[in-house]
Design goal:
- This protein is α+β, with helices and mostly antiparallel strands and 354 residues long.
- The chain folds into two domains: 161 residues, Aminotransferase class 4, branched-chain amino acid transferase, N-terminal domain (D-amino Acid Aminotransferase, Chain A, domain 1), CATH 3.30.470.10; 166 residues, D-amino Acid Aminotransferase, Chain A, domain 2.
- It is built from eight helices and 17 strands.
- Strand 2 and strand 3 form a beta hairpin.
- The model has no long low-confidence stretch (mean pLDDT 96).
- It binds 2-OXO-4-methylpentanoic acid (COI).
Length: 354
């Protein structure tokens, strides 16, 4: 399929202060769009000026949330070139989400090529500052004008780009996380493993209540017994207990994070013991009381590696590693960003050059 390109006639001013981009507020001059119609498949791939889209008020995505998305980044290296981190994994996961949400699959190679073309066109928007990057958001949503409940027959696939800094305003400083005991994010047989809007909509109430108590995010427990740790919602979670790196196994209700997978691969390469298993919040609290909870950190594309300084479970407040960045978190952050920004060799073949 050919990709038609229509360039903007009114390019926007680029941000001048790259140390103050925030996350996901600014968008570039162009976006990628492609339509799906039943009987015709994906068609009309195009790169067009970034702008508003017109939708029927009856568009099915607005009523029943048939939507999936991805998140990845493009980085500028010291020699000025641009590269992405494991983008093939994102489009592979997008097709897993698509299958769960009864959305037609995409051609992974084609959309990766389309993304490359879009980032090439927008290369001047990729920040030059360490810690900043071009956040990439591919997404698909149902557009049929119909208010009955069924899988749609018409979809839009889009990619938008946002020069961004750290996801948390605190940067690499430890975040405060609140263990959610009232609400759940995902249930057995549900959509927890898929990157779909519903998983995030359902998390907002808990997040809002956490914010009211001055906590940044919520740590979700399993939806059946509410005792096993799952994820944070914007990132996967890791515990270092007595030198062992432990992360909840992928049971179907946890997002299979690409930074999660890469962190496991790195820790194993460094000879650390890494275990993917079910872990209860009780076990974490007991390890804390025994002085064995060395570190807690989150992993995610947006969050990168995010140390957790405080964990609140009911009345119990656990202060981890004296609220300082732990050695493993720091090593993972330095290595991951070192590879992403081209400062370290790409031993695993994770880098995709633009
Ligand atoms: C990402 O890390 O890219 C995500 O999609 C998480 C989102 C909550 C920002």
């Amino acid at each position: 399929m050919d990709i038609r390109t229509e360039k903007t006639t009114a390019p926007k001013a680029k941000p001048t202060d790259e140390t103050n981009l925030g996350f996901g507020h600014i968008f570039t001059d162009h976006m990628f769009v492609m339509n799906y119609d039943a009987g015709q498949g994906w068609h009309d791939a195009r790169i067009v000026p970034y702008g508003e889209i017109s939708l029927s008020p009856a568009a099915m995505c607005l009523h029943y949330g048939q939507e999936i998305f991805e998140g990845l980044k493009a980085y500028r290296t010291a020699d000025g070139s641009i590269q992405m981190f494991r983008p093939d994994e994102n489009f592979k996961r997008m097709n897993v989400s698509a299958e769960r949400m009864v959305i037609p699959p995409i051609d992974e190679k084609f959309v990766l090529g389309a993304l490359k073309q879009l980032v090439e066109l927008e290369k001047d928007w990729v920040p030059h500052t360490d810690g900043a990057s071009l956040y990439i958001r591919p997404f698909i949503f149902a557009t049929d004008p119909y208010v009955g409940v069924k899988p749609a027959e018409h979809y839009l696939f889009m990619i938008i780009l946002s020069p961004s800094g750290a996801y948390y305003s605190t940067g690499l400083n430890p975040v405060k996380i609140y263990v959610e005991e009232k609400y759940v994010r995902a249930v057995r047989g549900g959509t927890g493993f898929a990157k779909t809007a519903a998983n995030y909509a359902i998390s907002l109430k808990g997040q809002d209540e956490a914010h009211n108590q001055d906590y940044e995010q919520v740590l979700w427990l399993d939806g059946v017994e509410q005792k096993y740790i799952e994820e944070v919602g914007s990132m996967n979670i890791f515990f270092v207990i007595d030198g062992e790196v432990i992360t909840p196994q992928l049971t179907g209700s946890v997002l299979p994070g690409i930074t999660r997978k890469s962190s496991i691969e790195l820790c194993r390469k460094w000879g650390m013991k890494v275990t993917e298993r079910r872990i209860t919040i009780q076990e974490v609290a007991e390890a804390y009381d025994a002085g064995k909870l060395d570190e807690v950190f989150g992993t995610g594309t947006a969050a990168v590696i995010s140390p957790v300084g405080h964990l609140k479970w009911g009345d119990k407040i656990m202060t981890i590693n004296d609220n300082r960045i732990g050695a493993i978190s720091q090593k993972l952050y330095d290595t991951m960003t070192g590879i992403q920004y081209g400062k370290l060799p790409d031993e695993f073949g994770w880098i995709f050059k633009i």
